[in-house]
Amino acid sequence: MLDEQGAAKAERALAERGFAKVGEQGYQVAHDGIPVDTGALRDSLWAAVWQDGTEVWSRGTVPPDPQITRQGIETLIGVGTDYARFVHDGTVDTPQHPFLSEALAVLRTGLADLVAGGFAQ
After folding, report:
1. Using an 8 Å Cβ cutoff, are 81 and 61 in contact?
2. Contact at 8 Å (CB) between 42 and 59?
3. pLDDT tens digits, 9-58
4. Shortest CA distance to 36 belongs to which of 27, 48, 44, 46?
5. 89: helix, strand or coil
6. Under a CB-based contact definition with an 8 Å cutoff, are residues 98 and 87 in contact?
7. Residues whose CB is less than 8 angstroms from the CB of residue 60 and which lie 6 or more positions away in sequence, other chains included
8. At 37, is the secondary structure helix, strand, or coil?
9. What is the largest CA-CA distance in the chain?
10. Domain ranges of the chain
11. From the CB of residue 67, how many other CB atoms can be counted at a distance below 10 Å?
12. What is the rounded distance in angstroms from the CA atom of residue 111 to the CA atom of residue 19?
């Protein structure tokens, strides 16, 4: 039988695993949606999950000081190139490839399902 502290630890571990799973799904959607010319944009893609400011899962090279609140559990996906928005939004000469918007949709749905299911996934 778990005491209150043990139950809280178990719930936190379930939440971290669930958020990591959803983060991985979002990362994969973004990765697959990036068109490849040199590969620099896709290589700069990263995703991470933090629990109270401590990184608990990541893919890619997470920047040294991402903009997180350091409270609760957070999931971010980002890229490290200056031109990512032009690929994402398109220009007059190139079509849009909304890889981050598609990843955000996966995160929203996945995290809502996770929370609604009590982190049981």
Report:
1. no
2. no
3. 777 777 888 889 999 999 999 999 999 999 999 999 999 999 888 899 99
4. 44
5. helix
6. no
7. 27, 44, 45, 46, 47
8. coil
9. 63
10. 15-116
11. 8
12. 7
Phi (first) and psi of residue 45, to 5 degrees: -65, 140
CB-based burial label for 31 (10 Å; 0-12, 13-18, 19+): middle
DSSP state string for 20-51: HHHHHHHHHHHHHHS--SSSHHHHT-EEEEEE
- Please give the average per-residue pLDDT across 57-81, as a whole number: 88
- Packing angle between helix 4-33 and helix 99-116, nearest 10 degrees? 160
- Report strand pairing: 46-51 vs 54-59: antiparallel
What tokens appear for 111 in the block? 């995290």
Decide if 79 contacts 53 (C-beta within 8 A). no
Among 18, 8, 2, CA closest to 116: 18
